[in-house]
Write a structure and sequence with these properties.
By secondary structure, this protein is mainly α. It is 77% helix and 0% strand. Helix 3 packs antiparallel against helix 4. The termini are far apart.
């Protein structure tokens, strides 16, 4: 490669580096979302099933969140309440304490199934020990 070709490539690379943040901020996020949906929409069956299961099993808590944020329905913050629910109750209760049937994990957590089962066992032991300690302290 000649020196002039190398200088031209350096100039082009410099211009691309300058323009890259602008392109990423305007088009990049939408492109990534569309590409992710195209690639994984059909592949995330376990994730969608897990979300449906958590919503069904925790429906009373979800209804309570919706009712307590009733005034937020008009502003669109109800979606934020549902996301908060999924991040707190569904993950904690669903991964640690939900024991009906097998542990149906989202695809993103499949490699961590064994570790989550160990954490689940430790959490159950801690709940039992704390219940016994509370009962013993009330008996005295």
């Amino acid at each position: 490669m000649e020196k002039t070709d190398m200088c031209t490539l350096d100039t082009i690379n410099f211009r691309l580096i300058q323009v890259a943040p602008l392109i990423q901020s305007t088009v990049g996020l939408d492109y990534k979302r569309r590409k992710f949906a195209m690639l994984h929409e059909e592949q995330l069956k376990h994730t969608w099933e897990w979300i449906r299961t958590m919503v069904v099993t925790q429906q009373h808590r979800l209804n309570a969140i919706t009712e307590s944020h009733g005034s937020l329905l008009a502003t669109g913050d109800c979606f934020e309440a549902h996301i908060l629910f999924m991040k707190t109750r569904a993950f904690v209760d669903g991964l640690l304490f939900y024991s009906r049937g097998s542990l149906n994990m989202p695809e993103i957590l499949e490699l961590d199934t064994q570790r989550i089962l160990e954490i689940r066992q430790e959490a159950k032991c801690l709940v039992i020990v704390s219940a016994l300690a509370l009962h013993a302290s009330n008996a005295v």
